[in-house]
Design a protein that fits this description.
The complex is a heterodimer of chains A (491) and B (460).
Chain A: H1 2-12, H2 18-21, H3 25-29, H4 46-54, E1 61-64, H5 68-72, E2 92-93, H6 98-102, H7 106-121, E3 125-129, H8 132-136, H9 141-152, E4 155-159, H10 168-182, E5 196-202, H11 213-219, E6 222-228, H12 233-237, E7 244-247, H13 250-264, E8 268-270, H14 276-292, H15 298-325, E9 329-333, H16 340-348, E10 352-357, H17 363-373, E11 379-380, H18 385-393, E12 399-402, H19 407-412, E13 417-419, H20 430-445, H21 449-453, H22 458-461, H23 475-490
Parallel strand pairs in A: 1-2, 1-3, 3-4, 5-6, 5-7, 7-8, 9-10, 9-12, 10-11, 12-13
Chain B: E1 3-5, E2 12-13, H1 20-28, E3 34-39, H2 42-56, E4 63-64, H3 69-74, H4 77-91, E5 95-100, H5 102-107, H6 111-121, E6 130-134, H7 143-158, E7 167-175, H8 181-192, E8 197-200, H9 204-207, H10 226-230, E9 235-241, H11 246-256, E10 260-263, H12 269-283, H13 289-309, E11 313-317, H14 320-332, E12 336-342, E13 357-360, H15 363-369, E14 375-378, H16 383-389, E15 393-395, H17 413-430, H18 437-440, H19 442-447
Helix pairs in contact in B: 1-7, 7-11, 13-17
The chains are: A alpha/beta (491), B alpha/beta (460).
């Protein structure tokens, strides 16, 4: 465990993290994981976080060294998409039984499991995840992986992030550490070029990176490695030869970006592909970094031309929604709004933001929110389920955008809801993604079910009608009464 | 008698199982005002919660004691105490169902002792809330066992012991975890149609049936009431459904003397006949006309449907009792159980499964055994095998996350069996291939192996 605790300490000391820099030495030492309240905690563990970051690597066999629950309850549950290999969706676990634990057979079973996977699937690499129980009984997965690597001649990578170590966020960081320690830089590419880039923290959810990649292709930029979305092991192993990098999901992999800059001189910037202006800005920043590293400056102009074209198309498409969405009130309830340009684009077509959670936002984020939303009373740290339900059932918002965790609060309050987290079904990145997001908001708000489900049962609405039999009246009159009942209630 | 083949692989490939604590939480979710609590690290809860939500499309009450490194080393009794008190204060549940996990069980904590201490120390604060413990390490069993352990724990912890005056019309029913919301609702109607008063434990039809309440409730709303669990001893008769419910039925018998009848399955004409006869004899009432009507409908469905079943090779992967339920259903209509895979070797029902062998294993095993089968029958995780093998998948069990309405699918008694026949026959009809000259060419067929002509099932 001592090497793990050193890793954790290291992961929490992140010079590239604004929030971290804002703390004094003592607070920094405590790390950024808040201690959890038993009976009132939510969210995944470090193992969950590590697996989220690594599992989208498509041709790797991901082997979870644990009793059943860690893998059995969680496999094949995310929306990342592969353009080729499917091995990452096959679940492997040592499924430790009571006997394995009592007899101390964990390490041996793990080694055999690696051998079985190597023989049956011959993957380029196997990632081995430690978990609470295997950490507790002291299984040395690093030693097993080392031995297996020597014996079987393939990369067997230990991912040391047992759930009890901390939060999902910590697991993200530990996964990055594992890539730095065991994967990146182990393969030399035979075709490095001046337009090679890495994208870090892009998960290719619903395939959304494919809304962006053609733009990069058009500019002649090659994605050496997208980590982890739709990645191949060899791409990541040779990612150290890229000339520039973009960091997409900042909290998850910032240490990876910074350390790659330190070790291999790959400059990076934090950007986002959500929203129109952010997508444009991301393209600009990427080519600027490439030019700084020796690419032909003519690319700058080509980029501006492409941006101008694409923005014009996107704004034109968005404009067609203005009439339908003008004045609609959106409640954003997500960990931290990843891109202010999404908010900007929504407001641009007349949508009003009536509230946003700032739980994971940095101080600078909060400043930006104040500027964008004019006043800060719309900001909330986090909202209890009950309050959220009250707000929505009183129709103080026309739609909530959030993750799956609060989905049913909105739906039970009979309020339109759109998933903008990892389980979402639609791609929102790039110019077309922004249009898709607005289209989905429109579809959600204007679905005809809302007026129907909010309607009370007719017999709860006008009790004096109950006595009357419909057959005693003509049908039109009866229908008219029903209608009257509905409108009366709405007023 | 089926041979039980134990797992010999070291790497489980595409797990069939969901974990034992999840099964226990599932049972607690069938109680009104309940809050299941996982005693382990927060990930244990998070994974189970997400899986429940994907299956039921509902907000699921489930909390964690959030064990961290320190608790793992020094002991987690404090975390358990804090969690119970927090839950009591914040959500005012009528029942807190503690489910242990591999982490706390590997440590060897005396959770029963801890809970006894907590109850003693906070008698007043915890008034009005039952706290029940199910020991459910992940490294043992699966959903069925977790479910049965939770029901047993509730009976042992809540039901008033001793022989009581019996209510002649009151029937205690202990359904297995393979019964859906629709199954439980339908069973209740059936029992009530004989003038009997069923008390169902757990009753997921009251809590997980997908309704829209008019206020926000943090615990379950609906399900068996704690008061009904307390008064189970006044039932005339207990009916347990599924072999895994034998243990809770025995616990009730031991505690209160209420006798039990166990049905291993309620799917199929004959098992339903037995059930209906039992209800008739307990109640002294004649079988109502509409039940007779349902029986006739099932007879007709069997006559219409059997053409689609005869000779079909079915590959099933499910928890033991559900495997038995489905395998006997298919075999009863003339199909062959080409592959039977289950989660654990603990169940006595396995040797009765109408198959040559039952493999303890995972969906990787199902995929290799199902080559050449006509239908895969398992939960949603079978979708990858179905794609690769190009064999249709009938989704059943837990979890079903890529189809809506699995809880409202009926599969028991006359009506459920009828529906099941139609569902399967329709899958076959939807995937029919028109005959081609090549497929029928007698000379070509002689050259390839005669796999298509399998021998009839032994014992039929």
């Amino acid at each position: 465990m001592s090497s793990l605790s050193a890793k954790i300490k290291d992961a929490f000391d992140e010079p590239a993290c604004d929030k971290n820099r804002g703390k004094d030495a003592k607070a920094r030492k405590e790390g950024c994981s808040k201690s959890l309240t038993p009976g009132a905690a939510a969210g995944g563990c470090a193992f969950d976080g590590a697996k989220i970051v690594l599992q989208p690597i498509t041709d790797v066999a991901h082997l979870v060294h644990a009793p059943l629950a860690c893998e059995g309850n969680s496999w094949d549950n995310r929306g990342a998409v592969s353009s080729g290999p499917t091995l990452w969706r096959t679940s492997f676990t040592t499924d430790l039984t009571e006997l394995d634990l009592v007899m101390g057979q964990g390490e041996r079973k793990l080694f055999k499991a690696i051998r079985e996977i190597k023989h049956t699937y011959a993957p380029p690499a196997i990632f081995v995840y430690s978990t609470c129980v295997t950490a507790l009984i002291g299984d040395d997965i690093e030693a097993v992986c080392k031995r297996a690597t020597e014996k079987f001649g393939l990369a067997v990578v230990p991912i040391n992030a047992p759930g009890l170590a901390g939060s999902k966020n910590l697991g993200n960081k530990l996964a990055a550490e594992a890539l730095l320690d065991h994967v990146i830089g182990t393969v030399e590419p035979d075709d490095p070029g001046p337009y090679d880039i890495n994208i870090l923290g892009e998960f290719n959810l619903s395939g959304e990176f494919w809304l962006v990649k053609p733009l990069l292709d058009r500019l002649g930029i090659r994605v050496r490695a997208c980590i982890p979305g739709d990645a191949r092991y060899r791409d990541i192993a040779s990612a150290h030869r890229a000339r520039a990098a973009m960091m997409v999901c900042s909290t998850a992999l910032i240490s990876l970006a910074r350390k790659m800059e330190e070790r291999w001189d790959i400059p990076f910037f934090e950007g986002s592909f959500y929203g129109i202006s952010d997508t444009s800005q991301a393209l600009r920043n990427l080519v600027r970094l490439l030019v700084r590293k020796g690419a032909d400056p003519e690319i700058l102009e080509r980029t501006e031309t492409l941006i101008a074209q694409q923005e014009a198309i996107a704004w034109k498409k968005l404009e067609s929604y203005r009439q339908r969405l003008q004045g609609k009130r959106v409640l954003l309830n997500t960990g931290g709004v990843k891109s202010w340009s999404v908010v900007h684009a929504l407001m641009e077509i007349g949508i009003e933001i009536v509230g946003t959670s700032v739980k994971k936002s940095t101080v600078q984020d909060k400043e930006r929110i104040k500027q964008v939303l004019k006043h800060d009373k719309h900001m909330f740290e986090s909202m209890a389920a009950r309050e959220l339900y009250a707000m929505l059932s009183e129709h103080r918002a026309d739609i909530m955008l959030s993750g799956g965790r609060t989905q049913f609060i909105a739906l039970k309050a009979k309020t339109p809801w759109l998933d903008i987290n990892q389980e979402r079904q639609h791609p929102y990145a790039g110019y077309d993604g922004m249009v898709e997001l607005v289209r989905q908001i429109d579809l959600a708000i204007h679905n005809p079910i809302w007026s129907q489900v909010r309607q009370p049962a007719p017999w709860d609405c006008q009790p004096d009608l109950i006595g009357e039999l419909p057959c005693t009246r003509n049908e039109t009159a009866y229908l008219f009464d029903e209608f009257a009942c509905a409108t009366a209630h709405e007023c | 008698m089926a041979r039980i083949l134990l797992q010999s692989k070291s790497a489980a490939v595409n797990p069939l199982k969901s974990s034992q604590p999840l099964g226990a939480a599932f049972a607690f979710l069938g109680v009104d005002g309940a809050m299941p609590l996982f005693h382990g690290s927060q990930g244990c809860t998070s994974f189970a919660l997400v899986l429940f939500v994907r299956h039921f499309k509902e907000a699921i009450p489930l909390q964690t004691t959030a064990m961290d490194e320190v608790a793992t080393i020094l002991g987690a009794a404090d975390h358990l105490e804090e969690a119970i008190l927090n839950l009591k204060n914040r959500t005012k549940p009528k029942l807190i169902g503690v489910c242990t996990t591999a982490l706390v069980e590997t440590r060897g904590e005396d959770c029963a002792g801890d809970i006894a201490n907590i109850k003693l120390k906070h008698t007043q604060e915890l008034a009005g809330t039952e706290v029940v413990l199910a020991n459910t390490p992940d490294f043992d069993g699966a959903i069925e066992e977790g479910w049965a352990r939770a029901v047993t724990a509730m009976i042992e912890g809540i039901t008033r012991s001793g022989e009581r005056a019996r209510h002649p019309k009151k029937i205690a029913i202990l359904p297995g975890c393979n019964l859906t919301v629709a199954d439980v609702e339908h069973m209740r109607d059936m029992v009530e149609s004989f003038g009997l008063k069923p008390v169902i434990l757990p009753d997921i039809s009251g809590s997980l049936d997908g309704t829209v309440p008019d206020r926000w409730v943090a615990t379950t709303y609906g399900g068996t009431s704690v008061e009904d669990i307390r008064e189970l001893g006044t039932a005339m008769q207990c009916i347990a459904i599924g072999e895994h419910m034998r243990r809770p039925a025995k616990a009730l018998l031991g505690l209160t003397g209420v006798p039990y009848v166990l049905f291993q399955s309620l799917t199929g004409l004959q098992d339903t006949d037995r059930f209906v006869s039992l209800l008739s004899s307990i109640s002294g009432a004649a079988v109502p006309a509409r039940v007779r009507r349902r029986r006739a409908q099932l007879q007709d469905a069997m006559l219409d449907g059997h053409f689609h079943f005869g000779g079909k090779k079915i590959a099933i992967a499910a928890e033991p009792d559900q495997l038995f339920q489905l395998a006997t259903f298919f075999a009863g209509l003339g199909s062959e159980i080409a592959a039977a895979v289950t989660t654990t070797d603990r169940s006595k029902i396995l040797e009765k499964v109408p198959a040559v062998s039952v493999q303890i294993g995972d969906l990787g095993d199902l995929e290799s055994l199902a080559v050449g089968a006509d239908l895969l029958v398992t939960h949603s995780h079978g979708r990858q095998a179905s794609e690769r093998l190009r064999i249709s998948l009938m989704r059943i069990g837990f979890p079903v996350f890529d189809r809506l309405g699995s809880q409202h699918k009926l599969a028991i008694l006359y009506q459920g069996t009828r529906d099941l026949i139609f569902e399967v026959a329709n899958i076959f009809q939807a995937n029919q291939h028109a005959p081609t000259p090549e497929a029928l060419d007698p000379l070509r067929n002689r050259e390839i192996s005669h796999e298509r002509c399998s021998p009839p099932l032994a014992g039929q």
